[in-house]
Design a protein that fits this description.
The complex is a heterotrimer of chains A (355), B (288) and C (336). With 355 residues, chain A is of the alpha/beta class. The mean pLDDT of chain B is 86. Chain B has a single domain, classed as Orthogonal Bundle (MetI-like fold), CATH 1.10.3720.10. Chain B has eleven helices and no strands. Chain C has an eight-stranded mixed sheet, with helices on both faces. The N terminus of chain C is likely disordered. By secondary structure, chain C is α/β, with parallel strands linked by helices. The chains are: A alpha/beta (355), B mainly alpha (288), C alpha/beta (336). Chains in contact: A-B, A-C, B-C. At the A-C interface, α8, α9, α10, α11 and α12 of A face α7, α8, α9, α10 and α11 of C.
Chain lengths: 355, 288, 336
């Protein structure tokens, strides 16, 4: 299957204004050397905590931010070309669902009016009647009754608002939807409904999802492949099941072992407790070498000095850690590079395949 | 379908509004003032006293049943003049507000949305300059260089009032411009005018309305001050400030010539302020 | 059932609470009963809108009394009846051993005062002997409290402002402030929910250790089942203003008796993969027109006629000691 979205060596720096002029220019390296690929119809997850840069990646893919380095290609064409020549077509192809359902809808406009804005911009539907039917059908797709069409967002619950946001995103039949923590603000029972809807939509419309979240247990059930990010870099990347069963990077192990589980049986599925020391550093002050080294319980002297090389361990499992480098065979060292390209994985991950 | 919903929202708003007794008092005052001003010729006991009228036999009469607020130096009924004074004060307030509100709001929308561009910065710096001058001083200065008339009074007051709207709308827009629904509209290719007026403006509307109500009080007060010092409207048209100025020299003996117009001004300001506070509580705060 | 009455620190008994508003009367709490013994760790679990925050606020005595109105029931903490205590008397109750750790560290610390100033203010209520002295002793107490929550360099922290601390550190400060008054009962609202998961795990471990060390009773209010499983021994599940199930945590999670608890647990994403539960159909009922009988009835897949007629009583589950649920299915089971 061809790659739908290819991200290569993506970099994004933000300038932080501090002090006057020349001496005061500091940069926040929000995203550094991130590479991955998403295939048509698959769900790819980016996991991380605050400061990991995962949301920034989502915004870069959508085009809200412009990358300071690296390249993003969608259907073979670079994103800058898309925006330059086919701006509106681009916005139809890649959509974004935001985290906070409360602010994804304009509180001063009815649902119908929010739809109207997109319909007008994306030139979907002609004539009032057709547009009206489109809205009703869009709401049906997310199992909302048409009586919500003329309501204001404040009379909808969080879950219902998020469903409207999804309906708005699907309006233009996009190829890729970037989902930025779509269920973090919702209750568990509502989350189930949203995920089920997203799965159905994916099956019906063949949409690929870039699923950004901090919730690993959720990722286990929705994504075919997952990348773990820490302070702007991908530290480990694998097929989701593989990542859970054989986490190699200490940070991945820390993340997994921190999940509060609801039964002892679940506890057994997790790696042994890895407690990182201290707090997550601010992205303005990224530690040298491997960014995780100050907190890593297994840190070695080399970790603070040089950035580890990424190693491809086969079957799509990639990790960036000196421990892995040390225990890997010399032959597979280095050449896989910092490049997490997954285009050689021939089976796209779909929700049902996860075991 | 929409109408029933709108009626329910209004009823619900009134219920919430009426939770505070003082807000209802403010509403009642404003309504009474408005009616009195609108129907002045019918409400005032001696409507002709508002214009040219001389009756020295009735001059300086203290408050009585015949003249509840007394009469002035040329025998005119103070109460009637006050009622007509409401008319001119409210007219002033409404005229200024209607002129200043659209201007200030549009500037605020533009400056807030383009806050990262030079145009936004320019507008805000100009606004800041105007804001740094005490409004009354500014109004007085402008009014003093222009021939005294009601339109010049309106102009002077407008120059002193517009920046407050701009500043308020600017701060609201800068906090909203990165909201997901605005980003979504921008990404979809919606043009700036639509975003400003159809997406952002409805979110500022409640603050603007509250501001308008609160500002009425200050505008009226400033207008009274202008006419007190002789700028603004000319006699014999009844202005509350003018009445205060004329009556001041007769204190403390003919006290009714200053006290009642003063109370009238107080009533206008308090009424609008209470109403504005009530609206602010109803709409839930913000930077008013 | 007897063990539950011995040494009871907090007893909420059949609490019925309503809110009076424009749309009518919202009958939010419909008979909430829960108990916390000295040294026991209890969790109150429910989703948004279930009334757990209202319950918590009533226990703390900080619920705005119109529009809220208690129509039945009592809340007893040690020798006080919280519902009868006047506003002025509340600090004594809180000083007398009830302490509160709020949810969102960012908005619970005053941004314009230093941490030291805020802790000193708490100490003024907690330990009257410390006021009057020029703050030296209160500073020592504050430093010690911060060290107990594993914060490095407490002296410097006292001079810092809230925005200079990370979320995890702020949460630790809040816990330290909660422990200043030497409480017997700590009420924690969604502990760690606003934090990253690795930091949350650290905070929860620390809280657990502190509670064990000092022998404190803990009441956690949360929607996160995982947190409840990690921290507490006894759990109450709440839905639409009533307690639907209670029992020992392991027992309830392994074998939930109430359909709501069952559905909730099914919705939690499992680490073994395999998809998530489809969610619970329907919406949380409006409290203005709450369903008669069992409030979960309209959304319950096992509902039958009796469910809409009267409210089920808490019935013991056969296998678990103390494990009970408010469901007619259990009553049927009993009589069968």
């Amino acid at each position: 299957m061809a790659d739908l979205l290819v991200v290569a060596n993506l970099q994004k720096q933000f300038r932080v204004a501090s002090g006057f002029g020349r001496a005061g220019k500091r940069y926040v390296k929000a995203v550094e050397d991130v590479s991955f690929a998403v295939q048509k119809g698959e769900t790819y997850a980016l996991v991380g905590e605050s400061g990991s840069g995962k949301t920034t990646v989502g915004y870069l893919v959508q085009g809200i931010y412009r990358a300071t380095g690296g390249e993003i290609t969608f259907k073979g064409i670079s994103i800058s070309d898309w925006q330059r020549s086919k701006g509106r077509e681009w916005s139809r192809q890649v959509q974004l669902v935001f985290q906070n359902p409360g602010s994804s809808l304009n509180p001063a406009r009815t649902i119908r009016q929010s739809f109207a804005v997109l319909q007008k911009a994306q030139n979907i539907g002609h004539g009032r009647r057709e547009r009206e039917t489109q809205c009703v059908r869009a709401l049906e797709n997310v199992e909302l009754s048409e009586k919500y069409l003329y309501s204001y967002p404040h009379s909808l619950s969080g879950g219902e608002k998020q469903r409207v946001a999804i309906a708005l995103a699907c309006l233009s039949a996009p190829g890729l939807i970037v989902l930025d923590e779509p269920t973090s603000a919702l209750d568990v029972s509502v989350q189930g409904k949203i995920i089920w809807l997203l799965t159905n939509l994916q099956q019906d419309l063949g949409i690929a999802y870039l699923f950004i979240t901090h919730d690993l247990s959720l990722v286990r059930n929705v994504a075919g492949r997952t990348s773990v990010m820490y302070l702007g870099r991908i530290v480990e990347s694998a097929e989701t099941g593989d990542l859970f069963q054989h986490p190699l990077h200490p940070y991945t192990q820390a993340l997994l072992s921190s999940i509060p589980v609801i039964s002892d049986a679940e506890k057994d599925l997790l790696p042994a407790r890895v407690t990182p020391h201290g707090e997550i550093p601010s992205p303005t002050d990224i530690p040298s070498g491997c960014a995780f080294h100050p907190r890593c319980p297994s840190a070695m002297p080399v970790c603070g000095e040089t950035l580890p090389q990424g190693i491809d361990l086969g079957s799509g499992h990639w990790v960036c850690c000196h421990l892995a480098t040390a225990s890997a065979e010399p032959a597979s060292d280095g050449e896989g590079g910092n490049d997490g390209q997954k285009s050689d994985v021939d089976q796209p991950g779909r929700v049902e395949r996860i075991q | 379908m929409g109408n029933a919903r709108r009626r329910e929202t209004m009823r619900r708003s009134y219920y919430k509004f009426s939770q505070s007794g003082m807000s209802v008092v403010g509403l009642v005052i404003v309504v009474i003032l408005g009616l009195a001003a609108a129907f002045a010729p019918w409400v005032a006991p001696y409507p002709h006293h508002a214009g040219l009228y001389i009756d020295f036999s009735a001059k300086f009469e203290p408050p009585s049943l015949k003249h509840p607020c007394g009469t002035d130096g040329i025998g005119r009924d103070v109460l009637s003049r006050i009622i007509f004074g409401f008319r001119s004060s409210l007219f002033l307030g409404i005229a200024v507000t209607l002129f200043v509100m659209p201007l200030g709001t549009v500037l605020g929308l533009l400056a807030g949305y383009h806050t990262d561009r030079w145009s936004g910065t320019l507008v805000m710096r100009i606004t800041d300059v105007f804001l740094s001058l005490p409004p009354l001083v500014l109004a007085l200065t402008v009014a003093s260089v222009l021939p005294p008339s009601i339109w010049n009074g309106i102009l002077a007051l407008s120059m002193a009032s517009w920046p407050w709207y701009t500043r308020m709308v600017y701060s609201r827009v800068t906090s909203l411009r990165n909201e997901p629904y605005i980003l979504r509209a921008k990404l979809a290719g919606i043009g700036t005018p639509h975003i400003l007026f159809k997406e952002l403006l409805p979110n500022c509307a409640s603050q603007v309305i509250t501001k308008m109500t609160l500002e009425m009080g200050s505008v009226v007060l400033m207008g009274a001050t202008l006419s007190f010092v002789g700028l603004g409207e000319k006699p014999p048209s009844p202005g509350l400030g003018t009445m205060l100025a004329d009556g001041a020299q007769y204190l403390p003996v003919q006290w009714w010539l200053t006290v009642f117009p003063g109370v009238a001004i107080l009533l206008i300001v308090v009424g609008f302020n209470l109403l504005g506070d009530g609206l602010r509580d109803l709409y839930g705060g913000g930077d008013t | 059932m007897d063990r539950r009455h011995v040494g009871m620190l907090l007893t909420v008994c059949d609490l019925h609470l309503e809110f009076v508003g424009f749309d009518g009367i919202a009958k939010v709490l419909d008979g909430v009963s829960l108990r916390v013994k000295a040294g026991e760790k209890v969790g109150l679990v429910g989703e948004s809108g279930c009334g757990k925050t209202v319950t918590m606020k009533s226990i703390l005595g900080i619920l705005a009394s119109p529009p809220a109105r208690v129509t039945r029931g009592s809340i007893l903490y040690k020798e006080w009846d919280i519902l009868k205590v006047r506003k002025r008397g509340l600090p004594r109750v809180h000083g007398g051993g009830m302490s509160y750790v709020p949810q969102d560290p960012m908005s619970s610390l005053n941004p314009v005062f230093t941490i030291g100033t805020q802790m000193r203010d708490v100490l003024k209520y907690a330990d009257a002997k410390l006021t009057g002295r020029r703050g030296k002793r209160s500073r020592l107490v504050a430093v010690e409290a911060l060290a107990r929550v594993q914060l490095a360099d407490p002296e410097r922290l006292l001079k810092s402002y809230a925005f200079q601390l990370s979320g995890g550190m702020q949460q630790r400060v809040l816990i330290a402030m909660g422990l200043l008054s030497h409480p017997e009962l700590v009420i924690a609202d969604e502990p760690g929910t606003a934090l990253d998961v690795t930091i949350q795990a650290q905070i929860l471990e620390m809280l657990d250790a502190l509670v064990q060390e000092e022998g404190l009773a803990l009441l956690i209010i949360t929607h996160n089942l995982g947190v409840v499983n990690t921290l507490v021994d006894w759990v109450y599940t709440m839905y639409a203003g009533s307690i639907v199930e209670e029992g020992p945590t392991a027992g309830v999670f392994a074998g939930p008796a109430h359909p709501y608890t069952k559905a909730l647990i099914a919705c939690v994403p499992k680490l073994a993969g395999g998809g998530i539960g489809r969610g619970i159909p329907g919406r949380v009922p409006s409290y203005f027109a709450a369903p008669s009988g069992c409030r979960f009835g309209p959304r319950c897949v096992c509902a039958f006629d009796t469910c809409g007629l009267r409210k089920p009583e808490m019935t013991g589950v056969r296998e678990g000691p103390g494990h009970s649920a408010a469901c007619f299915l259990l009553e049927q089971d009993r009589t069968a």
